[in-house]
Amino acid sequence: MIRPSPRPPFPYCPWCTSTLSQDNPFRQVCSRCGFILYHSSSPCMGAIPLDSTGKVLLAQRAIEPFFGQWNIIGGFLNYQEDPLEGLVREVREETGVDCTVLDFITMTADIYGEDGQALMNTYFTVKLLSQEFTPQDDVRMLRWFSLDALPDALPFASDRKALAILRHKIQSHGLHSLVRCHHE
Ligand SMILES: [Zn+2]
To answer: Which of 126, 123, 60, 68 lies closest to 92, judged by CA?
Structure first.
């Protein structure tokens, strides 16, 4: 059973616990201390490991929502974390190996699960620095997929969009330009 995430508008000021008023559609103001509460999407990073044959590594979820279905490796950025450091951290947490960042793919707005919180997802391709990866953290299994034979169980619309954009980029520009690391 997944409970809906709390979402705006919020009843109380997180600073002084007074009542918040609705200032405009995207923020609320505390009438006592003046604290402004902005309604923001939570930033998430998605990492798409790409190999030299154009296959992508996806993760099978070991958690709800969508237990047993597939998603792009990634997760929530920590407060004040550098986004690309967070991207590499998520790859290490889910696969146990380090990576270099290749290309920006896309940014999308999405909702996490049925009644979940608002997300802002940013996707990059990455190059794994070792093939000795093992599923860790919230991951049940890791597997390479051709972009022409992706699993049906890809529940997140933003993941499907990012993979479609990557497929289009490879078709337009060739695989070679996308698997070469800019920092090499
Ligand atoms: Zn307040």
So the answer is: 126
Ligand 1 centre to CA of 9 (Å) is: 15
Alpha carbon distance 13, 31 (integer Å)? 9
This prediction's pTM: 0.89
Please give the distance, rounded to the nearest whole angstrom, from the Cα atom of residue 26 to the centre of ligand 1: 17
Q: Which of 181, 159, 165 is closest to 44 using CA atoms?
A: 159
Q: Which two tokens stand for residue 44?
A: 């998430």
Distance 31 CA to ligand 1 centre (A): 7
Ligand 1 centroid from CA 20, angstroms: 8
Cα angle value 154/119/95 (rounded, 5°): 55
The series of mean pLDDT values per 10 residues for the chain, 184 residues long, is 71 95 91 94 97 96 93 96 98 97 95 82 97 92 97 94 97 82 50
Looking at residue 118, the DSSP 8-state letter turns out to be E
Give the chain's domains with CATH numbers. Answer: 10-39 (no CATH), 42-179 (3.90.79.10)
